[in-house]
Amino acid sequence: GAGVSQTPSNKVTEKGKYVELRCDPISGHTALYWYRQSLGQGPEFLIYFQGTGAADDSGLPNDRFFAVRPEGSVSTLKIQRTERGDSAVYLCASSLGTSGAEQYFGPGTRLTVT
Amino acid sequence: AQSVTQPDIHITVSEGASLELRCNYSYGATPYLFWYVQSPGQGLQLLLKYFSGDTLVQGIKGFEAEFKRSQSSFNLRKPSVHWSDAAEYFCAVASGSGNTGKLIFGQGTTLQVKP
Known about the structure:
The complex is a heterodimer. By secondary structure, chain A is mostly beta strands. Chain A is built from no helices and 11 strands. In chain A, a hairpin with a 6-residue loop joins strand 4 (31-37) and strand 5. Chain B has a single domain, classed as Immunoglobulin-like (Sandwich), CATH 2.60.40.10. Chain B is built from no helices and 12 strands. Chain B has strands spanning 3-5, 10-14, 19-21, 24-26, 32-38, 45-50, 56-58, 64-68, 73-78, 87-95, 102-105, 109-114. The A-B interface holds A 3-4, 31, 33, 35, 40-45, 48, 50, 55-56, 58-59, 91, 93, 95, 97-108 and B 4, 32, 36, 41-46, 49, 51, 90, 92, 94, 96, 98-108.
């Protein structure tokens, strides 16, 4: 079956611009996670959705970052006024449940801010 | 705060040799522990997980890991490495109040396999 998909696979943008990154989770998965992976580092948690609501957004670095999941399926991570430090691979994962449930990761979106 | 440490950034082993990747965690309660593998151009794939019970857990691709509470460790092992095992390996602990399941990852260990 289809796994987690993310679009675009690569995004190059200029400093100060707005970007949207999309995640299509596995059908039926209620939990959705966003992580950010900088070069040479492990993924870092950003935000978690259970259904339509953001249950934990403690990992969002500042108010330039925002994510939505309006219908409880597809999610969009939005970054305003991008900075060069935002350059990273943004990973999305989904799972059937929460604690302990296997998270299935997408291939990621590589964001480069010039 | 919860944290995961992978002391070895890079490891090189010969094909057919045994492998052990180290992972230490800091967590107040009984942790949920995971090992993921990331190959170039591929998404993270779960190798195995530990929640409770038997401290030696078996995973996919011939990997196993042992949970040692006294040492706060969850080391990954494989008796005989194949060239296709070359990848980045991440240890993670599930964290967050209310069991949100968010994962805290270590910085990863890059495994290189010599022919």
